[in-house]
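note to self — DONT lose this again. spent like an hour looking for the file last time. sequence + predicted structure for the chain T wanted, 601 res
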Amino acid sequence: MSYVSLYRKYRPQTFEEVVGQDHITHTLSNALKRNMISHAYLFCGPRGTGKTSVAKILAKALNCEKGPTPIPCNKCNACLQINSGSFVDVFEIDAASNRGIDEIRNLREKIHFLPADGRVKVYIIDEVHMLTREAFNALLKTLEEPPPHVIFVLATTEPHKVLPTILSRCQRFDFKIIHTSDMVVRLLQVAKTEGINVEERALPLIARHAQGSLRDALGMMDQLSSFTGKEIKVDDVVSLLGMSHAELLFETVEILLKRDATAIFEFVERLVENGRDPRQFTKDLIEYVRALFIIKNANEANEIVNVTPEVFAKMGAQAACFQESGLMRFLDVLSVAHSQMRWDPDARLALEMTLMKLTRPEMDSSLEGLLCRVEELERIIVDRKSKTIKKETGNLKGGQVTDRIIMEEKTRTPKVTSNAKEKPEKLKHEEKKQGEKPRGDGTKPKSEKKKMEDGEVKSPSPSPSGNGSLINTDKVKRAWPVILNKVKEKKISTYALLLECKSAEVEESNLVLKFNRRAGFHKGEIEKSQNLEFVRKSLEEVLGFKAKIKCVLEEGGTPGPSIQKEEKKDDDEILDREKIVDLLQRDFDAEITEENSPGEH
């Protein structure tokens, strides 16, 4: 047979021809120039990345007639024989089939003989991790101190299985997977040399399907050229390799976004009838969702996602419909399904159930599914709020409405219980009422009667702060639990200190906090300006009362009545009706559906 496969025919013959491993070829070239060749090398990396090819190039560079040289001539007898695999001083050993201690003993017996034709003997042991522990131990001493005319090159795809004692005696080089763009350039060069007409969009598909292995990519192009007769198009790649076209993946995600269960079963039916493999389709869908995640988060996603500008624009529109957590959930569910499909006898059913789980988050009992449902509820709440705000402010656009909702949630602070605009009116009205005197018959004026009916308790003297709030000790005691909760929201340590406060009284328009004689530390901490400010603001928010706060220690051995243990009374005795409604609307998002007159139940 005269035909040679493309990956064998176009195997790199010099360091410059190696694709995507510049960090290795540059180091070896400099070592050859400076005659700093090590006695043992370990080449690690995925399949098809050039480990064995670089080992052969190193052997040629050492045995070339012009060598040692970083650029072997590929014309001398040594170079030509190494290329053909017939050079007697270069030994390629497959450790998978020669993994026992007997083979290593045979190697140790022959290693001391001088080279027959070349300058040095080169032992290339491929898949070295397959050697047994006994074989590794037998090789250890020879590998540490080989004869001066011997060089070892060990190659493996699983370096973690190589004994640490072997690793420590080698110079290690890690081969990287080859980037898609580098593979596309190499495939295009080979296609032009072979006279293969390849559609431009087909090359990235071949490269991505090879998953970083240039050998696999060249093998695929070789197979496609045989299938199509030197004319390779995108549809041929999709058909032969079983890949899913971008339009098919786009349609799948659209169905998932619409959450159409009927369309899912119809889609899978059509997929199977067209001969698509559910496992391969799931794998392609994972890659597509990954690309959406990159577009959603990366600044220059077009440099990472290798698709045409038209497809990239459509993918960008789809990515905008997802939250980051939603895409991560898609990737998690699809990845688990793809790994399970390997052992599942009915891959079609597994694919249908996976797509249904993506469509219906309530079917997913994982934490990611729960998070998805919570985000859906948050979205519904935001939509309802936006509709409400749109009715109130019709001139705002959709984005402005959303921004307003977000700002309202972030800047939401406790409200003062009384309306600021109504305070001047209320102040004048109350001052006018204070000027009224009782009648001669001992009855109170009508204005004062109405105020008592509304539940407002009058203090002996008005507040000196100028806000006109009338307050007394009894009202402060009843409202104290609410005040404590307000302090707790601001700073929990201040709240803990206030728990030692035994009573709170209003004396000459000042709020006096009385502590037990043993609570001197707590009194001193509360008297600090920051803690006093928390108490003062909380008092103003609950009762609308601005006052100076004094802290004193109780006299005598018997502590006063604790305001934390005050007997509960009706809410209309703690706060007036207007403040209660305001608190409910603010803290619990309550709405007034029906308003009864005072006294009705």
